[in-house]
Amino acid sequence: MNRLTRYLSGAFAALLATATPTLCADLLLDDFTDATASHGKWVNKNSTFLSHDVAGGNCTLVNSSPTYAGEYSHDFGASKPATFTLSYVHKSTQGRDAGAFFCRQPGNEFSGYFITLRGSDLFVWKLSNGNSGGNSIFSKTVGYALNSAGNKITVSKSSTKFNVFVNDVFAGSFTDATYNSGDLSLFIDPETRAVFGTVQVTDTFKEGSPQTSFSDDFNGNSLSGYWQILKSPSTSPSIAINQANNVLTIKTATDDAAWMYIEFEHLNFTAKVEASHRSGLKSSAYGFVLIGDAQPGQNIPMAYFAITGDREYAMWASGTTANYTSSPAILGAASGGQFFVDRLEVRKSAGSSAYEFWANGTQLAAYPAANVNFNVVGVGIFCYGDLEIAFDNFSILKEGTTSIDRGSKQISCNPSSVTNRDHTFYDMRGRKRYITTSTAGRAQTRAAGIYVNKNGRDVAVRKGKPVGE
Description:
Blueprint: H1 2-19, E1 26-30, H2 35-39, E2 43-44, E3 50-55, E4 58-63, E5 70-74, E6 84-94, E7 98-104, E8 112-118, E9 121-127, E10 136-141, E11 151-158, E12 161-166, E13 169-175, E14 183-188, E15 192-202, E16 213-216, E17 227-229, E18 240-244, E19 247-252, E20 258-263, E21 269-280, E22 285-292, E23 302-308, E24 312-317, E25 325-326, E26 342-348, E27 354-359, E28 362-368, E29 376-383, E30 387-398, E31 424-426, E32 432-435, H3 440-443, E33 452-453
Antiparallel strand pairs: 1-15, 2-5, 3-4, 4-15, 5-14, 6-11, 6-15, 7-8, 7-14, 8-9, 9-10, 11-12, 12-13, 16-30, 17-20, 18-19, 19-30, 20-29, 21-26, 21-30, 22-23, 22-29, 23-24, 24-25, 26-27, 27-28, 31-32, 31-33
């Protein structure tokens, strides 16, 4: 009996030793309900101009300096974590930016990563001696995941990979090897007041994966925050994007274009949308667009599955020519005072080497997948010039997924709250491409291809070339 007891005890100890590395340990946990406990965890490094108040689950920081940023700092000591999950609750900000400064390097200069929620946009900046180089290492519009009061922001690191979450919804990831570990600060810009909730740091890595489905019936009063708009009406007044009467209407002027997309990185999927030609040029194209991941020095690649009001269709990728073919399966523009709705569909399955393009239950054609020679990072809709198109019932489903997540949380259709402070343009992964001192409208004539500025909304297209090129 004693031998059995010793065996079971030894087996249990071995099992516990095996399981221990997977257990989650708190490296820091503060819910800001006990000011004395918080005093032992944090240091106000700028008390001459930064005030802090801990009470009732809130940490309130007020930076009165017109010049200097402030830090409410936690030192992890000699064993600074290289693998961790950091989360904090962002309750409110008045003024400029406030957030978490992690992997903070020693010294008086700011070196490390800074994560902040600015309106409905989430940013991660990499700082070196206080300088970000004017370029965020990660940015995402996350209105779809935000709450009206208190939002949990999470960043998880393992090796060079960082996963980012908002209210435990996966927002995306980035890789960087500059800073492996460091300390943590609640970081606040000059002349800014911010309120933080619970801060937690664990020694584990949190996995994340892109969404596998999405749908939007456009029945709300504003666009779901999942949508990324590649040209805002504020900088291109000739474009109108409105949601009313349970449809999304996009209206473009001559020689203009509009793109909207959902971030979606799965190779095999089925996408559907209903499109109705309401007015404008019958020969102008509209329909689906696939958005690619631009490589350094290249334009953002796109692939189009389009129809026209003239009841024609075409499929083409960036750098190739669109050849239109007539099909009676397409209903097209209004006739005899009656408007028509075309039910469009793009399918790509694991067993197929082509994208299938369908209209109203009829397959129009197949487009070789080899022609889409880029990584697809988004799927959406587009309109070329001189069109008014009503879209409805957009959906996309990864192959093998059985249910669709509907975009239920809403944000305003107004342009991003991010201020366009300069004229630097980037590709869709945040890599800087060029700088112009002209206005945003004139910047569209300065560079070939499509680039976005810091708010992720505005596009520059070379003048004199087809907009989709």
